[in-house]
Amino acid sequence: MDAAALGLVRRARWRWPEVVLWLLAYAALLMPPGKFLILNEIAILALFALSLDLILGYAGIVSLGHAAFFGVGAYTAGLLAKHVTGDPLAGLLLGAAVATVVGFATSLLVLRGSDLTRLMVTLGVAMVLGEIANALPGLSGGADGLQGVTMGPLLGCFDFDLFGRTAYAYSLTTLFLFTLLARRIVLSPFGLSLMAIRRNPLRAGALGVPVNARLIAVYTLAAAFAGTAGALLAQTTAFVSLDVFEFHRSADVLLVLIIGGAGWLYGGIAGAVIYTLLQDGIAAFTPQYWQFWIGLLLVAFVLVGRQRLVGGLYAMLGWARRR
User: Fold this and answer.
1) Domain locations along the chain
2) Count of CA atoms in the C-beta half-sphere (13 A) of 263
3) CATH number of 15-269
4) What confidence category does residue 313 fall into, taking pLDDT thresholds of 50, 70 and 90?
5) Global pTM?
6) pLDDT confidence of residue 7
């Protein structure tokens, strides 16, 4: 077995930090009520970040309009629950399916041009979809949002409670399954070809990799992941507003990846935990200026760099251990 194959096998193995992470996440279900709503928010944001990581971290496609698919999934699940059926799994599947179709239809727009062109095109797609939703108040609820979203019991047994325990278990399990799926994808020959395209698309094409087909496939797949995250938000909050298409959604998930790191599966999860807890903690401490402090911390984080911060943390832990 050559070095490349051996490295792939090692990456495919589960490591103990991963196992501990998921065990702790599920152990949180045993906590007293009070924190399940924020945990549910973290799980949804982590899935949304995972979807962006597939195109940014592995394929090198930059996007400022990833909220387009998040919003499509949210409205699809919300409309299905309001007018057809409140079955959560049906809404989740349909939200992902419609987002997949929209992702495939818009994927051709990101094949040409530079990164700047892709930024503008993806942002434009999200803005157009947001305006379409705003122009159809009879369907989307307009500025008032989509109200009357009523969810049935999960698997016919588990009602969505006010504390959010069922919602968190639902979102966490969905995140876990999609992380497993993403893991299989990025460690497959398809995933390796994406990384080759990210590093040098011309060389990858010369080696026989169908560059455009791969980019279309991963962009469509990422849209399905984002649509699933949007559907989870609609189902667990029982409300959808035009806010799901807003620019800050795309910007927030990009910041999450900057914090956690793009190009590894757990970057979105780590970033979602840090970003959400920072936002919640600072907002509780200084409600008027929480955005200022978060912005300042993010600027410092980018300037200092993740590696230096992590290295400094390890140095502090080593010093404390020696003491």
Assistant:
1) 15-269, 286-323
2) 12
3) 1.10.3470
4) low
5) 0.88
6) 54
Buried b (16+ CB within 10 A) or exposed e, 254-291: bbbbbbbbbeebbbbbbbbbbbbebbeebeeeeeeebe
Report the SS3 class of residue 238.
Answer: coil
**Comparison of pLDDT for 198 and 290, the residue scoring more:** 198
Phi/psi of residue 154, nearest 5 degrees? -70, 125
Mean of pLDDT over the chain:
83
Nearest to 53 by CA among 144, 177, 186: 186
Give the DSSP per-residue string, 156-198. TTB---TT-HHHHHHHHHHHHHHHHHHHHHHTSHHHHHHHHHH
Dist. CA 53–CA 302, nearest whole Å: 18
Q: Express each pLDDT in 280-290 by its tens digit.
A: 888 777 777 77
Contact between residue 185 and residue 191 where contact means Cβ atoms under 8 Å apart? yes
Query: What's residue 52's pLDDT?
Result: 93
| pLDDT (mean) for 47-71 | 90
**Helices 189-199 and 211-237: crossing angle, nearest 10°?**
110
Place of tokens 């305006």: 131
> What does the DSSP 8-state code read for residue 242?
G
233 and 44 Cβ atoms separated by less than 8 Å:
yes
Strand (E) or helix (H) holding 88? helix 88-107
User: Scanning the structure block, which residue is given the tokens 């969905």?
Assistant: 174
pLDDT at 175: 95
Asked whether the predicted pLDDT for residue 223 surpasses 90, the reply is yes
Shortest CA distance to 66 belongs to which of 129, 145, 154, 16? 129
